[in-house]
Specification:
Order of helices and strands: EHHEEEEEHEHEHEHEEEEHEHEHEHEH
Pfam families: OCD_Mu_crystall
Helix content: 25-40%
Largest sheet: 8 strands, parallel
GO molecular function, one term: ornithine cyclodeaminase activity
Shape: globular
InterPro entries: NAD(P)-bd_dom_sf, ODC_Mu_crystall, ODC_N
CATH topology of the largest domain: Rossmann fold
Number of strands: 17
Mean pLDDT: 94
Distance between the termini: 36 Å
EC number: 4.3.1.12
Keywords: Lyase, NAD
Length: 355
């Protein structure tokens, strides 16, 4: 997919991304993306790692998420503004860049609003494959917003989850989720309360959007053997689980320095023991050790997952038309003559046009 000119950078628009996902198939895309994410977790030590750079306001947060494996560099711009839904806007929007470390030249510019939803769901399913009971088939999905269908599809495709119990404070959101998931062979039940939703669930996914500390799950709602996939707590001052649940659980995280600031474990002491997910994937440390164990994936999203998503998309673009080329870089024939490039452009303008 190399551009004929160095100034041209492939750009994947929202429409391109949707067409690429649908051409591959949503489930197949999630399965393959999960494989790429897991592959990159297996080479965790190759990556530069830093907690995301966040700019917080009373309205939300804007973040940059960078990482590099020494050959490729990636970053994502992403926001989180829960109040946006009141004016018909997305809570989360994002775009990302993949670049060549050797030259610094961008290799790909892509929308990542849809791609982030896919990679978040794929990462959740990767974690659950290592942490949930192998016989898990029922998932409670609390918070039926923009992430919910992606989570359901990922857990269905990668873990064989076939029963969903849905709850949201907005009944219309639950109805939309049920409608969107029709025809997939899932047994879906709309529940009147969160307590009803978690009854009999093997996996509990929480994915709410309010920018505050909340108690979506109380301690009495979580029984032995459950795997909790906590997605919604992803910034300082925003959590979903009662602290007592954390104290009863074995907690698994992506990158502790970031999760201790943003995740559920911001409620705990800084030295509370947690296990890094990559160590479980690499068989360096146990994940689930018994059927009665409560496991918690404190998911906040980490830059390596976005790196994996961009890397995967770039590979899948080969031989397709699901991108355009942007004249993004000033790349004169003589690299030192950037000013001359401007003069040559001036010479092409009509005499009546001001320089």
């Amino acid at each position: 997919m190399a551009s004929p000119s160095l100034n041209l950078v492939p750009f994947v628009s929202v429409e391109h991304m949707m067409d690429l996902v649908l051409e591959i198939g949503i489930d197949q895309f999630l399965v393959e993306l999960a494989g790429t994410i897991e592959d990159d977790f297996r080479r965790w030590e190759d990556f530069d790692k830093t907690a995301r750079v966040a700019s917080h306001s009373t309205e939300g947060v804007i973040e940059l998420m960078p990482t590099s494996d020494g050959r490729l560099y990636a970053f994502k711009y992403v926001n989180g503004h829960p109040k946006n839904t009141r004016t018909g806007k997305q809570t989360v929007t994002a775009f990302g860049v993949l670049a060549d470390v050797e030259t610094g030249y961008p290799l790909l510019l892509s929308e990542m609003t849809i791609l982030t939803a896919l990679r978040t769901a794929a990462t959740s399913a990767v974690a659950a494959r290592h942490l949930a009971r192998p016989d898990a088939r029922t998932m409670a999905l609390i918070g039926n917003g923009a992430q919910s269908e992606f989570q359901a599809r990922a857990f269905h495709a990668l873990l064989g989850i076939d029963r969903l119990r849905l709850y949201d404070i907005d009944a219309a959101a639950t109805k939309r989720c049920m409608t969107n998931l029709e025809g997939l062979g899932l047994d879906i039940q709309a529940c009147a309360t969160a307590e009803e939703a978690v009854e009999g669930a093997d996996i509990i996914t929480t994915a709410t959007a309010d920018k505050q500390c909340a108690t979506i799950l109380s301690d009495n709602m979580v029984g032995p053997g459950v795997h909790i996939n906590a997605v919604g707590g992803d910034c300082p001052g925003k959590t979903e689980l009662h602290r007592d649940i954390l104290l009863r659980s074995d907690i698994f995280v992506e990158y502790p320095p970031q999760t201790r600031i943003e995740g559920e474990i911001q409620q705990l002491d800084d030295d509370h023991p947690v296990t890094e997910l990559w160590r479980v994937i690499m068989d360096q440390t146990p994940g689930r050790s018994s059927d009665s164990q409560i496991t918690l994936f404190d998911s906040v999203g980490f830059a390596t997952e976005d790196f994996s998503a961009l890397r995967y998309v770039r590979e899948k673009l080969l031989g397709t038309r699901h991108f355009i080329e942007l004249d993004l870089l000033a790349d004169p024939d003589e690299p030192r003559d950037l000013y001359g490039m401007l003069l040559r452009r001036q010479a092409k303008l009509k005499p009546s046009q001001p320089a």
